[in-house]
Amino acid sequence: MRLGFIGCGNMAKAIIQGILAKGLVAPEDILASNTTQAHADATAAALGIQATTDNTRVAGESDIVFLSVKPQQYESVIDQVKDNLHECQIVVSIAPGKTLAWLSDKIARPVKLVRAMPNTPAVVGEGITTFCVGDLTTPEDTKIVKELLESFGLAIELKESLMDAASAVGGSTPAFAYMFIEALADGGVAEGLPREQARTIAAQAVLGSAKMVLESGKHPAQLKDEVCSPGGSTIAGVQELECGAFDGTTMSAVQATVAKARSL
Ligand SMILES: NC(=O)c1ccc[n+]([C@@H]2O[C@H](COP(=O)([O-])OP(=O)(O)OC[C@H]3O[C@@H](n4cnc5c(N)ncnc54)[C@H](OP(=O)(O)O)[C@@H]3O)[C@@H](O)[C@H]2O)c1
Hints:
This protein has 264 residues and is α/β, with parallel strands linked by helices. It has twelve helices and eight strands. α7 crosses α12 and α8 (173-190) packs across α9. The mean pLDDT is 96. The protein binds NADP nicotinamide-adenine-dinucleotide phosphate (NAP).
């Protein structure tokens, strides 16, 4: 199986590193493109894969083609490569807001489409990718793509109507979580913890909490209650978060992310 990445920035690199770490595809079977030869050389050196500045080559030579440029570049890149795409290939879009109908209209020929939303923790094998598939994508194609996506974390197939919401919760949460970890660490530093230890403690606490949600089967509210002793110190912190509208602000952040993705 030959994989192609048109555009090789943060997200494509995270996916490629995840795939290579699992050994699912050999480095010589991955071809990625950048805008300049210097960037392509850096990509090839960093990941040990093939790299080029020729998008049409990536489109023509790959069994699965990831469109991994910014949403604003999708239209011009599709226009550039669509004549090199053929009906046996699977084209995977990873841009927020680009619907299957939009992609099909711009590509303007029969191709197997997958609309996916990965996230950067793919690089450590802990990604979450939500995806939906187009009409021409067979169950066998879907199985192949799901296996590939699962090589760097969880992969969940959804109805397309749910993709915008899932994209915000999955694709953007790393940014929100990093902010939370940074703020937790800052609080620790304010109370005298050395910076590096504060960051490690905060990050491990968030990692462990996420694992508890996934593995215990308990509702997050129940897990929170189990940490908050009556009259204890944690419930005093919870109260502060509630005074700062933590839940409402987080929900609004997800909704703002969805709204922006739909406008791109
Ligand atoms: N970052 C995330 O957490 C995340 C999560 C989910 C989805 N996504 C989606 O993934 C896509 C890529 O995002 P990103 O964060 O990886 O962006 P990025 O780091 O800016 O990478 C974009 C890459 O596209 C390349 N590029 C730009 N124009 C090109 C062209 N005409 N032909 C070939 N390559 C071109 C750039 O190459 P040069 O470096 O040579 O200019 C750059 O390496 C976006 O659609 C984004 O919405 C990102």
